Structure formats: structure tokens, C-alpha cells
Amino acid sequence: MKRFLLLAIASFAVVQTAPSQPLPASAASSRIESLIARMTLEEKVGQLVQYTGRFDSPGAPVLSEAQRTLIRQGAVGSFLNVDGSAIRDAQTLAVTKSRLRIPLVFGLDVIHGYRTTFPIPLATAATWDASLVERCERAAATEAALMGIHWTFAPMVDIARDPRWGRIAEGSGEDVYLGSIMAAARVRGFQGSDLASKTALAACAKHFAAYGAAEGGRDYNTVDISERTLREVYLEPFRAAVNAGAASFMCSFNEIAGTPSSGNRWLLTDVLRGEWGFSGMVVSDWNSVGELVPHGVAADSVEAAILGITAGVDMDMEANAYAFTLANSVRNGRVPMAVLDEAVRRVLRMKEQLGLFEHPYHGLDEPAALKLINSPEQRARAREAAQRSIVLLKNAGVLPVANSVKRIAVLGPLADDKRNPLGPWDQKGDPKDVVTVLEGLKAQLPSTVTITSALGCTILDTVPHDIAGAAALARNADLSIIVVGESSNMSGEAASRSFIGLPGRQEELIKAVHETGKPYVVVLMNGRSLAIPWIAGHAPAIVEAWFLGVESGNAITDVLMGKYNPSGKLPVTFPRSTGQVPLTYDHKNTGRPANDAANFTSRYLDVLSTPQYPFGFGLSYTTYNYLGLQLDRNSIGVNDTLRVSVRVRNTGLRAGEEIVQLYIKDEVASVTRPVRQLKRFEKIALAPNEERVVRFALTADDLKFWDSGARWKAEPGYFHVYVGPNSAEGLAGRFEYR
Predict the structure, then answer these.
(1) Peptide bond before 400: cis, by omega within 30 degrees of 0?
(2) Selecting from 3.40.50.20, 3.40.50.1700, 3.40.640.10, 3.40.50.2300, what CATH number does the domain 379-580 have?
(3) Triad 312, 315, 321: Cα angle to 5°
């Protein structure tokens, strides 16, 4: 028991912080306080319990008779994986048959669309366009809310620096600043300006915290990092979500330095609620409270529930730890009633903010939802998002497709695939809604162009399918478009890969086409960065298309044909080899910085230390020149602003958009600092020969880091500033912070 009590109050912090106090009763409405005063102990616990709907037939969620009984008893507060008419039935039971008539809250994983499926979050992060991302989430929220959903388990704001981890697909990549910008945009998009609106979803920032740092890139695995890395890298996007008004948080499966998140009071109470002032509710991930037992920090579900509730987990998702044990733990004094009441207060507050007491069906309007789904307006948004998500990695004059091309071979296992472009967590996505690359090309190319097609191989073939036949089509074509990559179930939860090259015989297919000597384009569909050294070295053109959703084929064709000039930039580094990962642009220098030409430096014997494609990289059908970097002063103080400007000229023949990126480096500090850190970016549109001055402003806040005294601090000294098209190039300047 002594061991258990110590774990219950364990803190990750190097410097202890006082636990935050529960929010005062005045922070909740009189209705909530009245309900808490009238609730039985079992009804209070019921508000903290979430169950999932079951499926008697594909796509038809229903509630069991046992679950219906729990609703009547007030013994459940929420359901997930229920929508439409099943919500109406369940909610009617709650507001007419339960003793206190407290409405249920219904959650669903609306990650990148409800039925109208948008590009995966990693893809929309490649737009570097927060406004577009916000519009996409607003469109997804509207569809879901009209189907009766109140709450989405998104956005996932985990920083992901190991592409072996499958859930990298659900977030915004490896960078803290870009990830924080996208986290806030997604929260705003889901929630809108008013949670009570019939088209709003309560956002849930997940997974708190450091889930993306799982050892070996293996899902659910251990995380062991310093508090400095936790603070500077993994927590910042969550703080951005708090500042954007996120209604809820989800704690993560993993441990951090020996303390699992679902039992980590320092993380959930001291930092989240105490330091950041978060007043919303925290939900566990699926059974993550119960999993404190296999973690080895709780002997049974009784101890697991006590750890969870005292750490700050308000709602227990599909664990049954709270439902079966918590009331007794309150009765015998192991959990104070005040702790239970505060968790109930947070759950009821979110229900009140959603307007569920006045409007328990919260926008449920299936006819309106069905009218909106796949509407021209929704598809236009999805197409724009898909266009802007595409990153041109290489182009040796093959793209855009020339008018002289009259015979095109469309090859590869994903060329006419309608399921995989939806990507992981496509929720209600329907393959029949998807436009494939082959369909997009046939729809947009003139009748004078002959199109032939073949699979060549399947995604996971261990023997050739018909690579020779595909190569024969390529030999007789003016141009081949080879669409290859991953299946959607190779990304997402429980989808870690030890090898991040192209699976199966797909590279063999590309090599066979290469041997014909005819021009070709490789189009990649995937949910992570890939290691593709042979393709990068030999293919004439490479288009990174991610999983783009229902408008995949149209958007990819728009780019291939030059109807849209690609402007996406990588939100993740592409390594040369799986063995390089984790590999990020903002690495530390070490005492022996990497030098591939020198021995006894931080390098590999068998591969260059540099990436295949750096963070922030992306080409265009035009070219840009960066000129005249200027800093308006040589030094700044704590209250000053440094203004940085650069001239960017479109030196090509096409109009285009460029993402201008600003990075800094702290030259000397009391602790080691990254070689570069993204601090600002701006997307600009330029006509041919047009030049624009891009201006950025930096303050002392941009120079701060978590110092050895456990505080955010900017130290006096010199800083480098870089402005350019990606993290590896650009003009350089220098200034002093006094």
C-alpha cells in the first residue's frame, strides 16, 4: 500500500510545483451545483463513465439492452461510436427516463472528415495554411454535428519524430512551431465560435503527452525523455490547444519516465490545470486507466481507478475501472468526495457549454447532414485541401505533363484504388465517393490522349503480379504515371513499421519502368515519410500525395497537368534510410558535429548523415529567388522587437505560391540548443517576375527555452537568423540579445 500511495502522488517534475486547486463552485452554473447536490454517489460515478456502441450490422450502431438500462439508471455519462437515430433513441432515454434527466454526450473520432473525407492531418499540415486547415475541420464538424455528434477525439497534436510510428499520420509532423499553429487551427475549426452552435464539436486535444516519442516508433511503447525535451517539444502544441479554447484533453497510453499518463498527477493537474489554467475535462484513452495494471503501477482496477481520478482523469473511456470500483473507494475514504465532485463538475460543464441541457439533440438533423455530405461545396473544399497538401519532391522537366504527350500508361496498385486514398481513421468514409488517379486523368485529359492502365503488382505482393506487362505498357507510352505507396491500414493506430521503404514489389515495378528508358512520374500515397533512396536518385519526377481523401484523383491530376501549381512543403523529414530515424532538422550539434567526410564525427559508415528531403522542402513549377535579408537592428532587449525582411522574386514563367520560412539558432547557451528552430513562416502568391518583401517580427519570447533552473528564459548572447525555402537553405543574419 505504501508503494501505491507513493505512485499516486508521483511527479515527473525536477522542481516540484504545488498542485492546482479545484475550480471554485462559482466557476460552474447554479444548475450544475444543484445537480451535484442532488446526485447519488452512483449517479456521480455514472457521469464519469463512457461506453461504446456496438454494431449488429456494418455501419449500424445500436445500444444493448444492458446499456439502455444503464442510461435509465443514470449510470453512464457518454457514449462513443454512436450516431444518427441511435443518438436520438439513447438521448431520449436519458432526458425522459433517468431520475435527473441529465443528457448524454456523444463522441466520435472525426479525425479528417466525417463522410466527406479530407486529406489526413499530416497531409493538411503540408499546406502550412492554418486558415485552410481550420476551414476543413469546420466542414467536418458540420457534417458530424448534424448527425448528432457532440464531441470529436481530435485534434491529435502529438509531435512525431519517428516515422515508424503509424500515428504520425494523424498529426502535423515533427516541428513544435508548425504543430502548435496547426493545433490551434484545428481546435478553432472543430469548435467554431460557440460550442452551443448546432454545427460545433467539442475538440479533444490528444494524446497528453509525449505519445509520439514512443521508443522504436512502436505504438503504446515506453517514453523516457528529459523534462526539457518534454517542455520544449512535446507539450507546446498542447498549450496552444489550451490557448485556443479546447474543451477537453485525452491522456495518452504511454508512460513518461516511469509514470503512465493516466496516473500522472503532475502532468494532468499540476501542469495542465495549474500552470496552464485549463478548466475543461480530461478523458482517458480507450481503457488507459485500466491499463495502469499491466503497466505495473496498480495492482488491480481498484487501485487503477484511484490513480486515475486523483491524477485528474475525469472520464473513463471503456475501462470499467470507474464504473465497478470508484463508488466503493469514495465510501471507504480512499477517494475524497471533493475529488469526485470536481470531476463530475467538469463533465457537466462541457455538457452545459454544448447546450445539451436546453437542446439535448444538439443539431441532430440527418436530412440536412445527408444533403451536405458529398455536396459540391464539401467536395470543392476537399479538392482544394488535397491540391494544397501535395508536395513536389523532384521534377527533371517531366511535369507538368506536356501537350505533346499522347499516350499515358497509368500503373501501380494505387492508380485505380478507391479504398486506400481515404487513409486511416476515415470514420464514415465510403470508397464509392473516392475519385481515383485513373478516373481523374480520364475525366480531365482530352480524348486525343490514349490511356492504358495496369496494376503491375499489389501493395504487399511477395511475388511479381504482372510487372512485365506493366513495363510493356510503359514502353509503348510517351509517359508513365506510377501510383505506389502504403495501404491505409499501414498508418494510424497499431500500425508501426520497422521498415519505411515501399512495401512489397512496388520498387521493382518502378525499376522495370525505368529500364524502358521512357519518362515516368512516381506518385506516392502514404501516411508517413518514406525512405526511397533509389527512387529519389533515379525517378524523373516524384509527387508526394499522402492519403488525400475523396478528391484524391482530381487533385493529383490537377497537379500533374499543371492546372494547380504545387505549393506544399514537407512537415516531416524524409530520411535516406530507416536506420537514420529519428532524424529531424532541429537536432543538436553534439560535441562532434556530423561531417560525412571526416572520421570520429556523429555520422554513419553506410549512409550520409543528411536527409533525403529536409523539413520544409517542396518544389514548384516556377522558381523563387531570395534576396536582401535585412535585420532592422543589431541587438534587441527584453521589450524590443526585431524586424526581419527579405525580398522574394518569382523568377519562373508561372504564377505560384511560396512558403517563406524563418529559423533561428542560439549561438551559445547554458544548455545545448538545436541547430535551427522554425519561428515564423508566411505563404505568399507571386506572378511571374513579381517580387515581394516579406516581413517577420521576433521578440524575446521567441528566444526562450527551458533552462537548467526549470523556467522559460531567454539568455543574453548572439543568435543566427535564417530565411529561406526550407530548413536546409536560406539567407543568414545575426543579432544580439542583451
Answers:
(1) yes
(2) 3.40.50.1700
(3) 95
Q: Which CATH architecture has domain 624-737?
A: Sandwich (2.60)
pTM over the 0.90 mark? yes
Give dist(CA 386, CA 555) in Å, integer. Answer: 6
Contact yes or no for 157/177 (Cβ under 8 A): no
Q: Are 443 and 450 in contact (CB under 8 A)?
A: no
Cα(370)–Cα(142) distance, rounded to whole angstroms?
11
Q: Are strands 731-737 and 717-724 parallel, antiparallel or unpaired?
A: antiparallel
CA–CA dist 106, 104 (Å, integer): 6
324 neighbors 290 (Cβ within 8 angstroms) = no
pLDDT of 697: 98
> What confidence score (pLDDT) does residue 84 get?
85
Catalytic residues: 285
Give the integer Cα–Cα distance in Å for 226 and 355: 41
Nearest CA among 375, 483, 370, 499 for reference residue 421: 483
The H or E element spanning position 733 is strand 731-737
Between CA 598 and CA 717 the distance in angstroms is 30
Assigned CATH for 2-7+108-367: 3.20.20.300
Cα–Cα dist 433/20, whole Å? 49
Neighbours of 323 (CB within 10 A): 21
Chain-centre distance for alpha carbon 282: 19
Question: Taking the domains of the chain in order of start, what are their residue ranges?
Answer: 2-7+108-367, 379-580, 624-737
Nearest in space to 396 (alpha carbons), one of 301, 494, 479, 332 = 479
pLDDT digits (tens, 9 = 90+) for 670-723: 999 999 999 999 999 999 999 999 999 999 999 999 999 999 999 999 999 999
